[in-house]
């Protein structure tokens, strides 16, 4: 029977990202119409895989982002993952992540 | 003549997974309508192959999951395998497995 | 002139497999209608090639199955080969073989 | 919640470029009609990633352009990035950059 | 001016094969209708190239068949070559040859 | 603002070529109709990039043509570049250049 | 201005071949109808490039044919080159050449 998922450990060079929630009200407090709120292309790294395999010897090559990093996401791609907390998680490959954000 | 299959030993980096059964009743015991019960994307590793070959020397590169691991599966892909116990088994390549679950 | 074929020696990482014959009667002896008897995805290894070439030095990398092994076949692919004994033989590449069976 | 972006650190061999603004008036001061002002294929490097990974050992291979370089851009491709300053930024891979300009 | 071809030396890992002639009469001497005589998938190796190049150092990797070997051919592919003797010759790459026959 | 381009330094294995001007009059001085003057497939190398990267160690592999070489161009491909002098420049990859001309 | 081409030096693993002229009359002197004279698939090597680059170190790997060799050409592919002498020249990559002829 499918059980509750407490923790996700991405495989290989996969990165689990929690997508940032969209800003739905302006600084002045005006609620933005839902249609104008596009997909948020930012997120926070929740978990990282051990890395891609080095084709020469099979060792893992650690990924270049770590838990807690804020990252810029591509508009498309990734695999949606649903956890119990109903937040939106996505699995990306390391090479899909566009940039780290500060 | 095709004989009964007692044990399956996946080749190379293939992983044999038994798909978790869907939860068809809510915690309160209400039976969910079949249509609402989507494909279960969780499963348990039943057997693993020796690993992909290192192109440099032909040695096997052991896979990163082992028997008993709970894993997150992609929605598509894999090869269905029927055994005598009528449970649902699927063969995936290691790189298809999205994550390990705890 | 095309001569009779006594022995087939597959090249490179090709594997010659004799497909198991379908079970056409139930244990109780009832003859199954032909349509219900799907393609048998099991077979026995009859001969193996020397292996794929190591791209680094050209040496052969021995395949991971041997004569007599029972194997699980993919539903599609492979090259049919007809020998004089009218049994069904198929040539697969090593990487196509899904699993060994016990 | 999506936060303001102060700094973008491109990943791998990605290069963040600010596209040069189009020249909309001739040297004589005549305002060019918008349609005649094509996409500007020049820009300035704002930030560079650590570089692509060396497939042999996983180390980064530093990119061949640096912050401040003026570069020639291809007409298509790249990923648009919007920052708070409303200027036009684009992320390209190193191998997409056509040339450095002096 | 195009001259007569006495000898063909295949390049790289190409193999020149003379296709076996079809058996057009049964052992009892009955002439088979032409339509029932499919393409003969057997042939004899007439000449072999020096081999594919080792990508590491450019050396040739000798092919695994030699002059005189009887081989099993795929149904499709290969390049037809006409010589003066009007026999049917075909050039295959080593990796296309399915098996050696004894 | 987009500035004038004094010098172009192609990246990686790109080669900047100035296309030779078409011969529009015969030796006898007759002006050829424009339609009969096909695209000129000759040009002169104006600038070369540092070379493609060696995938093993990231070093550049110098290209095989140099400034001033006359080269034979393929009919298609390349990226047009406009400079202030209104001459026709094109960026090709080294492997696109068909031959050097003397 | 496009100048006359005295000599062509193919780049990398390209081979310049002069296609043999078709035999348009039988040994008995009868002129063959043009339509029956197919494309001549023979030619003579006029010039060879330095060779493809070894991906490991960038060195050239000399090609396996030399000036004066008679070669068998594929029916399609190659790049036509026109020189002043109005003969038909074609540029092929080494791996396209099917065989050497004696």
From TrEMBL, chains A, B, C, D, E, F, G:
It comes from the Eukaryota. One of its GO terms (cellular component) is mitochondrial matrix. SMART domains: Cpn10. One of its GO terms (molecular function) is protein-folding chaperone binding. The keyword Transmembrane does not apply. InterPro entries: Chaperonin_GroES, Chaperonin_GroES_sf, Chaprnonin_Cpn10_CS, GroES-like_sf. Pfam families: Cpn10. Keywords: Chaperone, Stress response. The keyword NADP does not apply. Belongs to the GroES chaperonin family. HAMAP family: CH10. This is 10 kDa heat shock protein, mitochondrial.
């Amino acid at each position: 029977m499918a059980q509750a998922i407490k923790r996700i450990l991405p495989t290989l060079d996969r990165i689990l990202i929690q997508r940032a929630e969209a800003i739905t009200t302006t600084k002045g407090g005006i609620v933005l119409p839902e249609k104008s709120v596009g997909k948020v292309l930012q997120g926070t790294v929740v978990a990282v895989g051990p890395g891609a395999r080095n084709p020469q010897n099979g060792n893992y090559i650690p990924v270049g982002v770590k838990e807690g990093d804020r990252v810029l996401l591509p508009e498309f791609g990734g695999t949606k993952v649903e956890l119990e907390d109903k937040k939106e998680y996505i699995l990306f490959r390391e090479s899909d992540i566009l940039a780290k954000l500060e």
